[in-house]
Amino acid sequence: MQIRRVRPEEYDAVGAMVRAAYAGDYTLNDEYLAEIEDVAGRDEVSEVLVAVDPVTGDLLGTITVPRAGERLIDDTAENEFDVRLLGVSRAARGRGVGQAIMRHAADMARSRGLDRLVLHTGEQMLPAQRLYERMGFVQIPEREFTIERDIGPLRILSYGLDVGRVTA
């Protein structure tokens, strides 16, 4: 598979893919749905990457990463590379797409001279947590928090990975 920057004509499809991937794991409120679907807005201030099947051109997955010297998450330290909104299409699940995207993110962190890959994930996103733990991520309890929403609270977990120790 090829991992590259999203193209403007793919924004809507990527937003729909992430929405579908997340909707299967927990209930999304309107504010978060709007954020997930605003791929163009994210790509203006960060880098939205996509994994693409080189034969068919199908979008397999996506992730949002910061531009060099910037960060996406407020509690990210100077030596850390933070990522957001990892999503894999339902059709591509179980094919190693999420792992390939996360390995690519770890490679980006190393190439920028950063030591650690960090992220937040919803407590209900068990498949994502299993992927992170297989790859060697460990929870960072002091960075976890709860979001109060009109549809009920959402516990957010934090994970980190020393980019020199990627496994799986």
UniProtKB/TrEMBL annotation:
InterPro entries (alphabetical): Acyl_CoA_acyltransferase (IPR016181), GNAT_dom (IPR000182), NAT_camello-type (IPR050769)
Superkingdom per UniProt: Bacteria
UniProt keyword list: Transferase
An MF annotation (GO) of this entry: N-acetyltransferase activity
Keyword Oxidoreductase among record annotations: no
CDD domains in the cross-refs: NAT_SF
Domain (N-acetyltransferase) ranges: 1-164
Protein name according to UniProt: N-acetyltransferase domain-containing protein
